[in-house]
Write a structure and sequence with these properties.
- With 272 residues, the chain is of the alpha/beta class.
- It has 10 helices and 9 strands.
- It has helices at residues 17-28, 40-52, 67-80, 103-131, 152-172, 191-194, 204-217, 221-233, 243-254, 256-269; strands spanning 8-12, 32-37, 57-61, 85-88, 94-95, 134-139, 177-184, 196-197, 238-241.
- Strands 3-2-1-4-6-7-9 form a 7-stranded parallel β-sheet, with helices on both faces. A two-stranded parallel ribbon has the order 5-8.
- Strand 2 (32-37), helix 2 and strand 3 form a beta-alpha-beta unit.
- Helix 1 packs parallel to helix 2 (40-52), helix 1 (17-28) packs across helix 8 and helix 3 (67-80) packs parallel to helix 4 (103-131).
- It starts with 7 loop residues before the first strand and ends with a helix.
- 44% of the residues are buried.
- It binds nicotinamide-adenine-dinucleotide.
């Protein structure tokens, strides 16, 4: 059954990984797509795949960190579309502690991972509220509820996304608009290659070890995409994805000290 026929789904960061698979999962369910990314060539590949499924697609090169670009994008989108589902997915990673992270790096990651989500919500949620319907999906991470010493800036942004989403869910509930936060664990995508490695983690060995870990874990982005579709259909709130994300979610609540110890061991194993 096509659950999203006559619906428009907007996905940011749709050129790769979780964003690409999410866009295609909604397209398979009948949705019209509005997609954006900074990678024009790969964005077009996603658009072509969705068109091959018979869907209408509007694809634009947009930097989610750029407030003016997001404003223009939203104005163009709203001329032809009412967005039913907004997936704020675009994101980047940075491995390093506070002592390794320059202020330029902080600006970069906060700009994309946190301001990008804020921009998406700021420019697209008001029309949903006017129409009294819609669903917002913000992609956080297991790093949105577990702080680790080697992901200071990344965790900061992902905790921010989780906090914003919880608050937004409460705010928008009376308006008939739902909000879900997706918190994946280790998902095998090209995020490893784009990851900025800093301080003592800035080695080829670290990147090779991360790639090997992600390959070995081999949890595909299409499984996160399915969880996102399911979250909208079932109007879910916080959605850990992958068994380790669920385990950490509960351990953090039930045994926070044990979780901190386990977290340090896991970071060591990952090369930290
Ligand atoms: N892969 C994982 O293990 C994992 C785990 C938890 C959370 N996440 C989150 O999932 C989301 C998607 O990550 P992914 O693993 O699919 O990574 P990915 O690198 O495969 O895809 C990210 C996409 O975002 C785009 N992007 C980057 N900066 C952008 C910008 N300024 N404006 C617009 N688009 C931009 C990239 O070009 C890329 O197409 C991110 O928010 C990430 O933090 C990933």
């Amino acid at each position: 059954m096509e659950h999203f026929s006559n619906k428009t789904v907007l996905v940011t960061g749709a050129a790769s990984g979780i964003g690409r698979e999410t866009a295609l999962a909604f397209a398979r369910q009948g949705a019209t797509l509005v997609i954006c990314d900074v990678d024009k060539a790969r964005l077009e590949e996603t658009a072509d795949s969705a068109r091959a499924l018979g869907r209408k697609v509007m694809a634009r090169v947009v930097d989610v960190a750029d407030r003016n670009a997001m404003r223009s994008f939203s104005e163009e989108v709203h001329k032809d579309h009412a967005v039913d589902v907004l997936v704020n997915n675009a994101g980047v990673a940075l491995t390093g502690g506070l002592l390794d992270t320059s202020l330029e790096d902080w600006d970069w990651i906060i700009g994309i991972n946190l301001n990008g989500v804020i921009h998406g919500c700021h420019f697209f949620v008001p029309k949903m509220v006017e129409r009294k319907s819609g669903y917002v999906v913000n992609v956080s991470s297991v790093a949105g509820y577990l702080g680790t010493g080697i992901l200071a800036a990344y965790c900061t942004t992902k905790f921010g996304v989780l906090g914003l989403s919880e608050a937004l869910r409460e705010e928008l509930h009376p308006h008939g608009v739902g909000v879900a936060t997706i918190c994946p664990g280790v998902v095998n995508t090209p995020i490893v290659e784009a990851n900025r490695l800093r301080g003592r983690y800035a080695t080829n060995d670290m990147r090779t070890r991360s790639r090997a870990l992600y390959n070995k874990r081999n949890y595909g982005p299409e499984r996160v995409a399915n969880a996102i579709v399911e979250a909208v259909l079932r109007r879910k709130a916080v959605v850990p994805v992958t068994p380790e994300a669920w385990a950490i979610y509960w351990m953090k609540r039930l045994a926070p000290k044990t979780m901190a110890t386990v977290g340090r061991v896991l970071v060591k194993q990952a090369g930290g």
